Each structure stands twice: as C-alpha cells, then as structure tokens.
Amino acid sequence: MKVIGLMSGTSMDGLDAAVAEFEWDGAAVAMSPLRHIERPWPDEVRARLHASLGPTTAAELCQLDQLIGQASAELATELLPADFVVSHGQTVHHWVHDRKAMGTLQLGQPAWIVEATGLPVVSDVRARDIAAGGHGAPLAGILDDLWLRGDHTRAALNLGGIANVTIVRPGRPPIAFDTGPGNCLLDEAARRTTGQPQDKDGRLAARGEPDAALLEDLLDDPYYALAPPKSTGREHFHLGELPDLSPEDLLATLTELTAITVADALAAYAPAEVVASGGGVRNPALHAALQRRLPLTLSDERGLPAQAKEAYLMALIGFLACHQVPLLTGPHVLGRISPGDAPLALPRRAAPPTGLLIRPA
C-alpha cells in the first residue's frame, strides 16, 4: 500500500508531504520512504496563520481552512500514485485545562484533497484520543516506539515549533510528551526583531551571548515542572514584550532555553541515544547546544529523513488506520476517513505491529 502523509507543524512555516510504501513483514510493518516535498506557506498565508493564534473570527478560520485544504490537495497530487492520503492539517489551538486535554483544532478541509486525488483521506487524527481521555499529542510516539525498540533506552526528539520526545524503554511502555518550545520562540523572535521568518542557519544566535537573567525567568515557566504525560502549544509559549537585548543575544538565549529544557526533560531517563528530527536540526546553533548535553544522532542515520519524519509519521498513521489498528489511549483507531471516488474497501483489522522496519526504496 502506498500512502501519502501531509503535515504542517507548530512552526507554521510550510507544508511537508511524503509518500511511502508499506507492507506487513510478519507481525512488523515495513516502510520504504519514497519521496518527500517541502513547500513553504506563501507570506500572506503564514501571516494569517500567526494572526489566527490571537483574537480571530469564524470567517477567517473558514477561509484558512479552505486555503490549507487546497494547498494540501495540490501537494498531494504531486506524489501520486497512491492508495490513501493522510492529512494532519495546521494546528491553530490545543486546548488544555488543568492538565487535561479538552480539544484541539486543525485547519485544512480534507474534501479538497479527496476531490483533487479521488483517494480516501484520513484526517482529524488527534480528536479520538482526546475524546478517550488522552492528550492527542505528541503523535510521534506511535512511530518512535515501533522504530527504536531494543535492549537500551532510547529517545526520539522532534524539533518542531514545539519540541516533543518519546522515551522508548526495554520491556516498558513508551512515554511521549511535549518538552516545551522547539523553534516557535526562535522564529517569533527572528520575525519581530529582523522581519525574517527565522534565524537562518542559527547565524544570529551563534554571534550572541545568552542573557542569564532572561534565561532564568523563562525557565521559571510552570510547564517545565509538570510530570508527563503533558502537551502544550503556541497558545502557551509565545513572547510578550521583547527584552532590551540585541537580536543576537535574544536568539542565543532562546536557543539555550530549548536545549536546556529538552535535556532536563530527558535527564531522568538517561537515554543511550537521542535520535533527532524536525526543522530544528537544520539550525547549527541549536544542534550544537543540544549535542553538548545529549548523545545526539540524526534520524537520517537510521534511514528516515529528518526533515520529513512527521510527514512519514502521518503516512504510517494512515496505514494503521486503514487496518483499524488501535493507537495511543486504549483500543481506539485514530482519524476519520473521507471516502474517495471508488467504494471504500478497508483491509481486515490487524493486531498492533511489533516493530517498524525502515527499508530503502
């Protein structure tokens, strides 16, 4: 089965798409990554997405829902042929109250993808888990647990707008949670101080010096002291009034914040290896700050492109949803299916896989 995965993360910088071929290998799933595409959001769409995090209107959300759906449809057609499409959509709000996830909202109307490709589309992949009492986040643990099982404790780190980790331990259930900001504060600081969408290659941060007082204040956020499972989003982590610092020193401070909070979150588990992926791995300053603190490797070294891991995660979720495999909290199949042009025919329900094998195309 060939499945297309579409993902736009909390960085809100663009849309990632990937197509992979899946098959059962005994009780395990074998995935062959075939191709992936990155497509930045047009400047106007990116600006409107960021603005939607504050006060907005139903009309604005409706328009963005269609625009993201149309862009997703266009990108999916570039990766055809396939059997299924999975679209995560763009998260604009993750509602957590008293440590309980109450709801989540992703934009990107899947009907546009169905209409453009004629294929069935899996969407809204977080909602069922939240309805069942879970957090609906992070989803990366689904892939990470299957992929990194072994004789030693390993961790997978995804550096999106929000950083999340999965702790994979021998003979014990995995733990997956958001550690705090990944790129979101870095991108916001770059945008507000330089007018650029990001600190390209971490150049500004590399020239700056962390401000100890600001770093101490930022580390005082109560989210970091919460025990997992926990999840968060950009509605919690954003900058208020900018401190009186140069852009270089501000970005150096925020780089240290991400590195320290990730390392602190992993310290109790002492992983033998931390496999990193996501947009943040392209930031040499952030990569170096993490490498000073963690036994870091990139997911590329294990056969999975670091820049496209979340898109391949979506493809995996789609394959498992087609086979009605329960995931995350209890015996619940994630996502809702919009049928394509042909009558919808699903494979027989399968048991949860015992592992994930990454094979070359």
UniProtKB/TrEMBL annotation:
Keywords: Kinase, Transferase. The keyword Transferase applies. One of its GO terms (molecular function) is kinase activity. InterPro entries: Anhydro_N_Ac-Mur_kinase (IPR005338), ATPase_NBD (IPR043129). It holds the Pfam family AnmK. Gene3D superfamilies: 3.30.420.40. SUPFAM superfamilies: Actin-like ATPase domain. PANTHER family: ANHYDRO-N-ACETYLMURAMIC ACID KINASE (PTHR30605:SF0). NCBIfam families: PRK09585.2-6. This is Anhydro-N-acetylmuramic acid kinase. It comes from Mycobacterium noviomagense.
